[in-house]
Amino acid sequence: MELTGKVVIVTGGNRGVGLGIARRFLQAGAIVATCSRRNLDPPPAAAGIEGARERSMHRRCNHRHWEEIDTFVKEVVERFGRLDILINNAGGALPLEKVEEVGKVPAEASGIRLGEIDPGYVAPLFHKLVIENNLLGPLWFALRAYRVMATQETGGSIVNISSGASSPAGSPHLVSYGAAKSGLNQMTKSLAVEWGPKVRVNCIALGPFLTENMRRIVLPKDESGQENYFAAVPLHRAGEPEEVGDVCVFLCSKAADYINGATIAMDGGLMPGPLLGFGAL
Ligand SMILES: NC(=O)c1ccc[n+]([C@@H]2O[C@H](COP(=O)([O-])OP(=O)(O)OC[C@H]3O[C@@H](n4cnc5c(N)ncnc54)[C@H](OP(=O)(O)O)[C@@H]3O)[C@@H](O)[C@H]2O)c1
Prior knowledge:
Elements: E1 7-11, H1 16-27, E2 31-36, E3 56-60, H2 66-80, E4 85-88, H3 96-102, H4 107-110, H5 122-149, E5 156-163, H6 175-195, E6 199-206, H7 212-218, H8 223-229, H9 241-251, E7 263-266
Parallel strand pairs: 1-2, 1-4, 2-3, 4-5, 5-6, 6-7
Helix pairs in contact: 1-9, 2-5, 5-6
The structure holds NADP nicotinamide-adenine-dinucleotide phosphate (NAP).
């Protein structure tokens, strides 16, 4: 899965699943631009990969702010001359109960910074932000990436990172998140139809993946709790961020040239029912 010289954007590529994705693209030889809500230098994804520092950058780009997306995509294209791949990874949410318990959204956990607000308005603001963060931001990123990719002879490829919470079985306690992620799956199909043959659009719906947040906030603290935590997953473990990177690299490589509009479940075989056990999917 060699992608030497391909220019890739990974949103939220500084930590968690996005970091694993960005590192796999760097290892496949690509040029990788990552973004999050802070400028970071050097780019975290390049650490320990030989020669990666020169072919990577990280910028602040809050994808809830459309102008920031425009500025970021423009900078990437000016600097590297093209854009071949977009991985719409940034997003996430906690169950609303946890948010209401603390009266504000813990910023690092949810990826959303509400700050102190009138507790009466936590719920509507939370739902609005979750939809902006998991659906509208990725849609605008895709539209801006497509505008560049459509002008290139070799087109491009987009992968949206969704969740098992998008299951038609519903996602109680993660209502707006599940709705936003199922919207992302639907949007994947629509854009794949609109943009083929120039640009392929696919999606990966994740089960539980071991990120720092998952370890810190969701996993039980005691050893036996941790051992039992993934019992509902037929593979009896959580996934690792780099494993998502492997599937993204595949989907954006020549080997997947006839895969378009697909949402691939990557969840160790987890059925939708036990999703509730995994608080922050
Ligand atoms: N981990 C899982 O088990 C799991 C399961 C199902 C689906 N997913 C999906 O996988 C994706 C990554 O999740 P994760 O577990 O890696 O989450 P994470 O560890 O909380 O990381 C989230 C990443 O997204 C960035 N981000 C969030 N909101 C943003 C915004 N408005 N603008 C720019 N960047 C933003 C964060 O940047 P900052 O550093 O600025 O906060 C961070 O880099 C999400 O779409 C999530 O819904 C994860």
